[in-house]
Amino acid sequence: MALNNYEEDPFDQESFQQDLEPEPEKKPGNRTFLTVLIVLGLVFLVGLLGLLLLAPKFIANQRASQMEQAALINAANTATAMAGFAQESLLQTQAAQTSIALTPTAAPTNTPVVVVATHTPVVASTELSAEELATVSALKTQMAGQGTAVATPTELPDAGFADEFGLPLMGGLAIVLIVVIIFSRKLRLSSR
Questions:
Q1: How far apart (Å, rounded) are the C-alpha atoms in residues 161 and 166?
Q2: In this predicted structure, what is the pLDDT of residue 7?
Q3: What average pLDDT does the segment 81-105 reach?
Q4: Whole-number Å distance between alpha carbons of 142 and 72
Q5: Cα dihedral 123→126→130→131 (10° resolution)
Q6: In terms of Cα–Cα distance, which of 116, 57, 51, 62 is closest to 89?
Q7: What are the residue ranges spanned by the domains of the chain?
Q8: Tens of pLDDT along 100-154?
Q9: Distances from the Cα of 153 to the Cα of 26, 42, 156, 173, angstroms
Q10: Taking the complete model, does pTM exceed 0.90, yes or no?
Q11: 72 CB contacts (<8 Å, ≥6 apart)?
Q12: How far apart are CA 191 and CA 99, in angstroms?
């Protein structure tokens, strides 16, 4: 058996030679990204420090303002309630006097004189004197003894993630995450 078109070298060396591309030059790391990341990190830290320094003062001033406003509102409400009570008392007194005057009498006899106390209505103002504040305090104490006590919260509840761990830990976690981002970026660029 004869083989046609048989060559001495069945594997042509030219067909297996591949034009290998030269290795590309390594590009330097992305310096713009690192610069922007560092600038943003610094801005975040400066903002965080500013918040830690200024927030307690701001919160204290805000609480004092709210307490003062609440005291004025309570004083005005008390004065309004007292004026309403005085007006109601005056109306009841006038109604009693009218009913007494309209009642027919049998004969003029020696009847005792009825003395009825009248109240002068109190006009609400924004400023209360020390005597008025003492009166308001006494009325509040009296009213508290008569009614059922209702619990009112004086501060926010302790619930949630930030209440348990606090702001310093949150800042630390933010820094750790930034370090992880930088490390993963460098690792990714070095594997190319």
A1: 8
A2: 58
A3: 82
A4: 20
A5: 10
A6: 116
A7: 39-98+130-136
A8: 777 766 666 676 766 676 766 655 555 767 777 778 777 777 766 665 556 677 7
A9: 64, 39, 7, 32
A10: no
A11: 126
A12: 104
